[in-house]
Amino acid sequence: MTAEGIDLVVAENDEEVASIVGDALADAARAGGAIALTGGHTPGRAYQVAAEREPDWSAASVWWGDERCVPPDDERSNYLLARENLLDRLTIQPGEVHRIGGELGADAAADEYDAELRGVRLDLVLLGVGPDAHAASLFPNAPTLDEPERAAVAAEAKLEPFVDRVTMTIPVLSAAPEVMFILTGADKAEAAERAFALPPDPAAPASLIRSTSGTTRVVVDRAAAARLTD
Length: 230
Description:
The model has no long low-confidence stretch (mean pLDDT about 95). Helix content is about 25%, strand content about 20%. The chain has a seven-stranded parallel sheet, covered by helices on one side. A three-stranded antiparallel sheet has the order 4-8-7. It starts with 5 loop residues before the first strand and ends in a 9-residue tail after the last strand. It is globular. It has about 230 residues and is of the alpha/beta class. Strand 2 (about 35), helix 2 and strand 3 form a beta-alpha-beta unit. It has one domain: Rossmann fold (3-Layer(aba) Sandwich). The longest helix is centred in the N-terminal third of the chain and has 17 residues, at about 15-30. The protein has helices at about 15-30, 45-55, 80-85, 105-115, 170-175, 190-195; strands spanning about 5-10, 35, 60-65, 65-70, 95, 125-130, 150-155, 165-170, 180-185, 215-220.
């Protein structure tokens, strides 16, 4: 059973997960939303679907929930993942693309992104969940979980690849009227339980991120949902 306030969507497989998330991204782009994208292994196919279903993103603005401190053409870059699977497939590019300048180094990039985010309200935040139940680059029991004022901060990586990160903070992520988590695979079942079925816990940072003004939606395949639907 999921915690109160969670809208759980269980798909048959990872392709159906990609379809559901891709539709949400396409809808947000069509509506001119400010959209925060995520990295990791799961969302690439969803980005492809989103580009297929809405190739004109001219009304939208695109942000990233976190980034590794690498150049934008580095294979570890969250921006590169989105560029190859989403941006390069669009007929019309987003009106605004707010890339995190990871190549500047964590502190400088975080300061720059923090300034860019001032006064911005995101409409849709897409987040993955790591096997340790982290989300964005908010890691278990890290001091970044308690940041009350800044919109973006530097973060030290707690898992591979061990490169410094920049991440949006919990208040900024949670302010979006739609927060959507995407998880697939049996190896995410325990993390899903810790994030969405058990009480909030700094050891499971995803459990601390909930929309304060709208919907927190969790889109999973049956394998990842194994401990949520018993």
